[in-house]
Design brief:
There is one protein chain. 37% of the residues lie in helices and 24% in strands. The chain is of the alpha+beta class and 509 residues long. The strands form 4 sheets. Strands 8, 9, 10, 12, 13 and 14 form a 6-stranded antiparallel beta sheet that branches. It has a 5-stranded parallel beta sheet with strand order 5-4-3-6-7, sandwiched between helices. The longest helix is centred in the first third of the chain and has 24 residues, at 154-177. The radius of gyration is 30 Å and the shape is globular.
């Protein structure tokens, strides 16, 4: 912020402080937080201004604007004049991240307020350029010109700054009020979709032969189902399922995904000569506007423990909006199962390890570990009971309300051992002339979903024939948008004699 010698110290400091405070909120960084006194101390330190377009570092705002005009033929003050506070922040951070030139910068300015909100977060820490009030600089230049003609400048400037202070204070209050919504909804939702732009995630899913070949085999072995049909692929990712459908005889496929991976999906479709059949659309399926109904809705929506990520909500929305009456959802059924596990070595490693870490007691962490639903591969030799199906979903009729539930289960122990945990897994059913089952049980070939393990705080010694009875409850997390809270409660008995009880809550986040 340039010095403003003709106004009071209070105004000189408070406007940059409020600007700094708003940026601190946007950056979500604990390092950026602090008091006004902290800020004033930082202001006393020598500032450095890094040019937007080259590596030149200037020692003052004036030098920066002069350098920009001389070296890049750009008047920064005029360029940013009239641009909103948030538009200025987004434009600076966009330019920093993309390393764009002056001409592209001019084009970006025209759409500054429509840039993605991720550019509200500073690219550089302590970026002095973000602290400059270009509107005030423009006004300063104007009033200096007036003062040369004998016009007094002090009072109008103070009035202007007072008005600006009120505006910034109001904006800051609004920002604080919306902080929870911004940090939770934007970060969790946008980060969720942005994570699926990462190639490694798609490589992991495509290399999961159990998962990918289940879809492929069902489509290729049931061409009578897909022949000349219209297909909607929800959450298409790389477009692999859409291309399977096209090769399997579908008349046309519309593939929808809200991740930037769709840019590659379009190229995959084109280079495999399927552009005449497959159309790729970027956007949330709840928000895109499609002009027709479809015969088939296909999606690989399953998450850890089946329901994590809550993508089934989107599938249900698309089904109700775009699937013709009598249409098919693929897969068409799913089931969730629970079984008892005995893994004393794994239990020791996860929990008791913290009691003595190189001679230090770190057991304080153990209570938190018991609250975690652990995604891992369970050795089939550690399963000591039968498997009980506790939730079954028909994808043609399931409602979003059905995705929060409490279901009873009963298990019979088959091996004398110590019960240390429960394991949850799921199966997906593709019904047709040639049916296919996608099974994530510990007894089957591992998938990228692995299994979901719920450890007991107090393991119980069990014998052959011991009976485990209880309830498993799934509730959507209010803290993590796409997470779930799982609750287990029940008892263990042998010949009508109680061996133990359990009542625990786990976070699948």
């Amino acid at each position: 912020m340039p010095p403003m010698h003709s106004v009071s110290n209070e105004l000189t400091y408070k406007i940059p402080f409020l600007r700094w405070a708003m940026l601190a909120q946007l950056s979500h960084s604990s390092e950026s937080s602090g008091s006004e006194d902290d800020y004033l101390e930082e202001e006393a330190e020598e500032e450095r201004y890094l040019c937007l377009f080259c590596e030149m570092v200037l020692s003052s705002c004036t030098q920066l604007t002069e350098h920009s005009l001389k070296s890049h033929k750009l008047d920064l003050v005029s360029a940013f004049s009239g641009i909103s506070f948030y538009g200025t922040i987004k434009t600076i951070n966009y330019t920093r991240s993309s390393h764009c030139g002056v001409e592209e910068f001019r084009e970006v300015l025209k759409k500054s307020d429509t840039l993605e909100d991720k550019y509200l977060k500073p690219i550089l820490s302590d970026d002095s350029l973000l602290m400059i009030d270009f509107e005030e600089l423009a006004h300063s230049s104007s009033t200096q010109s007036c003062s040369k003609n004998g016009v007094q400048e002090s009072d109008p400037r103070i009035e202007l700054l007072q008005r600006k202070l009120e505006k910034i204070q109001q904006a800051y209050l609004e920002l604080l009020e919306s902080k929870n919504n911004f940090s939770e909804q934007k970060s969790t939702t946008d980060d969720y979709f942005e994570s699926y732009a990462d190639y490694s995630i798609h490589a992991e899913m495509l290399q999961d032969k159990v998962r990918t070949e289940a879809y492929r085999d069902y489509i290729y072995k049931n061409t009578n189902i897909f022949n000349n049909k219209t297909v909607l692929d929800v959450g298409c990712g790389t477009g692999i399922l859409s291309m399977f459908c096209a090769e399997g005889g579908a008349a046309s496929v519309v593939a929808v995904d809200n991740s930037k991976i769709v840019e590659k999906a379009r190229k995959f479709v084109k280079c495999n000569n399927l552009s005449d059949k497959v159309e790729v659309i970027e956007g949330k399926v709840e928000e895109v506007k499609l002009d027709r109904k479809f015969d088939i809705l296909i999606s690989e929506w399953m998450g850890y423990g089946l329901l994590f990520e809550c993508m089934l909500d989107s599938v249900i929305s698309a089904r109700d909006k775009y699937l013709r009456p009598g249409g098919l959802v693929v897969p068409n059924r799913t089931s969730m199962f629970i079984a008892a596990v005995s893994d004393e070595k794994g239990y020791e490693t996860r929990f008791n390890f913290w009691n003595n870490v190189y001679g230090f007691d770190m057991s304080e962490v153990i209570p938190d570990l018991f609250k975690e639903a652990v995604v891992k591969c369970v050795d089939k030799s550690h399963v000591i009971s039968d498997h009980c199906g506790f939730k079954h979903l028909d994808l043609s009729t399931v409602k979003t309300a059905d995705l929060e539930f409490s279901s009873p289960f009963q298990l019979q122990i088959g091996t004398p051992s110590k019960l240390t945990a429960f394991v949850i897994h799921f199966s997906c059913y593709f019904d047709g002339e040639v049916s296919v089952v996608l099974d994530t049980s510990p007894e089957c070939e591992p998938t990228h979903w692995l299994q979901t393990v719920l450890y007991l705080k107090s393991p119980v010694l069990v014998s052959e024939g011991s009976l485990v009875q209880g309830n498993v409850t799934f509730t959507k997390s209010s803290a993590v948008k796409r997470g779930y809270i799982i609750k287990l409660d029940g008892s263990i008995s042998q010949d009508n004699e109680e061996l133990g009880k359990f009542c625990q809550q786990y976070y699948l986040h």
